Amino acid sequence: MLAVARFYGLLVNLFSMLAKGVPHLSPPAWPAVAAALALGAVIGHRAGDRVPEQRARAVVLLPALGGGVTTLLKGLSML
């Protein structure tokens, strides 16, 4: 199931980038982005065994839910 979720996430992000194009960042920002991704991967790998699955799921899903509700409210306010 996890492999399917990762593949789905990859496809969603790929199609999003194809639709919107590559982000317009200044050249010095790209190494910072790469470093942040690498640091996040290291922290995630190390914390993966220590953080309970329920808590990790909440940490990921609650901000996503907040973003979805914000987008919904923004769209409804434009009607």
Task: Give an account of the 3D structure.
With 79 residues, the protein is mostly helical. It is 80% helix and 0% strand. The protein has three helices and no strands. The longest helix is centred in the last third of the chain and has 25 residues. The radius of gyration is 16 Å and the shape is extended. The chain starts with a helix and ends with a helix.
What brief labels describe this structure?
79 residues; mainly alpha; 3 helices; 80% helix
List the helices and strands and how they pair.
Elements: H1 2-20, H2 29-47, H3 53-77
Instruction: Report the end-to-end length measured between terminal Cα atoms.
Output: 38 Å
Shape: extended
Low-confidence stretches are: none
Structural class by SSE content: mainly alpha
- Helix % is over 70%
